[in-house]
Specification:
The protein is built from seven helices and ten strands. The protein is an alpha/beta fold. The protein has one domain: Spore Coat Polysaccharide Biosynthesis Protein SpsA, Chain A.
Length: 234
């Protein structure tokens, strides 16, 4: 799926009860290597125009049934938050919690802690997606949530050709543990200390981070190629 369509009917609990999966979108980075605000890059929306990358990521999480969604912003929080609100839709608005990590320079783990705390009451599981891993189909998110919800492990990770990627599903117990750890901790070290369910997927983009203008151009080219091939997910 190369774009997120907010006219689609989402799965999940429409009432927003705590039985629905929650999500955290990590978008507090400084975009230093990109040279401009990564969150606001124009992502093709499939209708001949574009919306900001961060809006596309939020819509994908909503289409997977996630509610609520904590969107963690950092240095450019004011401008990015205003742009998100400008693109509010009936699908997105009721499920979104925009929060700022004032200590964003400490790194991504501190942003994850801010996002998890913003969710409030415990949820059966939390999907954690970095902003810079875009264009993943909501069906992949749903597969991770389904695997994690089986209760066999404390986390679920997608794998492609033997390599683990993003997003990551966390149990409520693992999320609570993260909130009690130092802000300088690392997610990879945590994941090595908990039980993990592996979800094999045929999606190489789980391994690709978009950090530079060259990365962004490669992503846009790959999306065009998907459409030309008639990819059913495009």
């Amino acid at each position: 799926m190369s774009h997120a369509d907010d006219s689609a009917v989402p799965r999940g609990n429409a009432s927003g009860a705590a039985c629905a999966p929650a999500a955290v979108l990590l978008a507090a980075g400084a975009s230093t290597r990109m040279g401009s605000a990564k969150a606001l890059l124009p992502f093709p929306n499939g209708r001949g125009s574009a919306h900001p990358l961060i809006v596309d990521q939020l819509l994908r999480l909503a289409l997977a049934g996630c509610r609520p969604i904590a969107c963690v912003l950092g240095r450019d929080a004011r401008a990015t938050g205003a742009e998100i609100r400008r693109h509010f839709s009936p699908l997105l608005a009721p499920r979104l919690r925009i929060v700022k990590n004032d200590a964003w320079a400490k790194g991504q783990f501190s942003s994850l802690q801010v996002g998890l705390r913003a969710l409030g009451v415990p949820y059966p599981g939390v999907l954690v997606l970095p902003l810079d891993v875009p264009a993943l189909p909501p069906a992949l998110f749903a597969a991770l949530i389904e695997t994690g919800s089986e209760g066999r492990a404390e986390a679920a990770i997608p794998f492609h050709r033997g390599r683990g990627g993003h997003p990551v599903w966390l149990s409520s117990a693992t999320a609570a543990r993260i909130c009690s750890m130092p802000a300088e901790a690392r997610m990879d070290e945590l994941l090595r200390s908990v039980s993990v369910s592996r979800v094999d997927v045929d999606e190489p983009r789980i391994l690709e981070n978009v950090n530079t203008p060259e990365d962004w151009e490669r992503l846009l080219l790959s999306l065009e190629e998907d459409l030309e091939r008639g990819d059913p997910e495009a």
